[in-house]
Amino acid sequence: MLSELDQKRIDHLHKLLKKEEKTNQDAAAALRWAIFSLEQHDRQQSSTDQIFQFAIKSEAEINSIMDTGAFNEIVKGYLVIVMRAANAGYGEIQEAVIALDDIFDITDADSARKAYREL
């Protein structure tokens, strides 16, 4: 979220941009870049905040998030990459992905974590 000061800066830059667009394209381009940079910084800061919030969650909270299925597609992607690296054939990969879908339906994140740790 933009700070009040940054939002005021962006608003001021937009006003300047309106004036400069008509007479000075170089200045207008610089202003567009400045606006973009401030907004990009805000997006990056928001992402960093979200990552930090996720990183400090307890194991139980992370398990709860995983149990929503929000990351199933990513986990399946890792499986595909690993199996390709191990030279598995297309059919084997398909079977493994189907099996993983079944496991997602019957296993919670806590059980999966325990199975990995016991390996």
Condensed summary:
The chain has 119 residues and is mainly alpha-helical. The protein has helices spanning 4-23, 25-55, 59-66, 72-85, 90-106, 109-117.
| Assembly type | single chain
Distance between the termini: 43 Å
Number of helices in the DSSP assignment: 6
Helices and strands, in N-to-C order? HHHHHH
Instruction: Sketch the major β-sheet.
Output: none
Radius of gyration (Å): 24 Å
What percent of residues are in strands?
under 5%
Uncertain spans? none
In percent, how helical is the residue content? over 70%
Mean pLDDT: 87
Show the helix and strand layout:
Layout: H1 4-23, H2 25-55, H3 59-66, H4 72-85, H5 90-106, H6 109-117
Question: Any key phrases for this structure?
Answer:
119 residues, 2 domains
Structural account:
- This protein is mainly alpha-helical.
- It folds into two domains: 4-56; 61-117, no CATH class.
- Helix content is 83%, strand content 0%.
- It contains six helices and no strands.
- It has helices spanning 4-23, 25-55, 59-66, 72-85, 90-106, 109-117.
- Helix 1 runs antiparallel to helix 2 (25-55) and helix 4 (72-85) runs antiparallel to helix 5 (90-106).
- The longest helix has 31 residues, at 25-55.
- The two termini are 43 Å apart.
- The relative contact order is 0.07.
